[in-house]
């Protein structure tokens, strides 16, 4: 992370659209199927669908005998302003999630980190932080809004969800000032319980 007083790049269309505070309103019930989405993985340039990891297999795939790995998924929505400006509440969480990535994988889970920075900014973030987990770019904040995560001061708010192999929501943590992000230990204990 580069320390800088330079705010160029911070004031953008995305910043303006997310300027005014909107609290998180996600009330998805537990065991509800998580809303599907498709975003680009900035490390590979490939588009990733949530259905690549969770949910039922289509009849065509099942009958063709194509092996698709269904596994629990941690959706880690994070708050990054630009490639040079990280949320002070989310940066330590990103680092902790990255340092513990192997613990998630050992439990058979995948971590999909989702940011609202554009693809080029997200590529820099992934490289600078040495991210092992996929970083998905949602610059229009469409998925953040679909999950009703709220926004404040130029970026959507962070949240974490754990989905089981079928795509059902088994855990949800929404931003609060008391606990901005669910700790790695808490996420791992939920995975152990499902």
User: How much of the residues is beta strand, in percent?
Assistant: 15-25%
The largest sheet, given as strand count, sense and whether it forms a barrel, is: 7 strands, mixed
Rg computed from alpha carbons, rounded to a whole number of angstroms = 16 Å
Query: How far from one another are the termini?
Result: 35 Å
Q: Any idea what the CATH superfamily is called?
A: Glutaredoxin
Q: Structural class from helices and strands?
A: alpha+beta
Top CATH class: Alpha Beta
User: Any idea what the shape is?
Assistant: globular
Please tally the helical runs, counting DSSP H or I stretches of 4 or more residues.
Answer: 7
| CATH second-level architecture | 3-Layer(aba) Sandwich
The H/E string reads: HEEHEEEHHEHEHEEEEH
Mean pLDDT equals 87
Helix content class: 25-40%
CATH topology: Glutaredoxin
Strand order within the widest beta sheet: 2-1-7-6-3-10-11
Low-confidence stretches: 59-63
